[in-house]
Amino acid sequence: MARIGIYPGTFDPVTNGHMDIISRAVRVVDQLIIGVAINAGKGPLFNLDDRVEMVNHEISLLPDGASDRVNVQPFEGLLTDLAVSCNASLIIRGLRAVSDFEYEFQMTGMNRRLNPEIETVFLTASEKHQFISSRLVKEIVSMGGDITHFVAFNVRKKLLRKFSVK
Asked: How many domains is the chain built from?
């Protein structure tokens, strides 16, 4: 039986940190589903279609045919419901810092209560990506800062266009 994992997030926008977790997660599962959350409560900069397109583009660039084992799927509602609908047994979560752990620990407990058949696996961000967050990337680009090291070229282009920066 294939081990299916879900890596959920808003991906507004997808960063090099996200891609680091994705490239490592795809090595521990047979199939990886990137769950792009609708989550209007977070007030995303990019609409759902744009976020899905950006993630799909970055996934297509994964080496060694890894992209064949990754699917991008928008979702709304409970993550555990998405997991059940996809036959996923793992939720993959990335941790950048100790401060992330408290929130993630709480979410893991809630998800476990909702469906004890689904395990959560934490992957710590690589050292060079630990400080990257979508929120900070948007803040930097909005002030005219250089985000070249934080997002892929395609994502950078979309951010610059969104903020009308040349």
From this structure: 1
CATH number at 35 reads 3.40.50.620
> How many whole angstroms separate alpha carbon 14 and alpha carbon 10?
8
Lookup: tokens for 66: 């890894």
Sequence-distant (6+) residues with CB within 8 A of 59 are 22, 34, 67, 70, 72
What is the identity of the amino acid at 66?
A: A
Identify the pLDDT of residue 66: 94
- Cα 37 to chain centroid distance, Å, stands at 9
Residue 133 lies in a domain: no
Indicate the pLDDT class of residue 165, thresholds 50, 70 and 90. low
Catalytic residue numbers read 18, 42, 96, 134
What residues pair up with 90 in beta bridges, in sequence order?
5, 119
Strand order in the sheet with 90-95: 70-75, 31-37, 4-9, 90-95, 119-124
- pLDDT single digits (tens) 136-147: 999 999 999 999
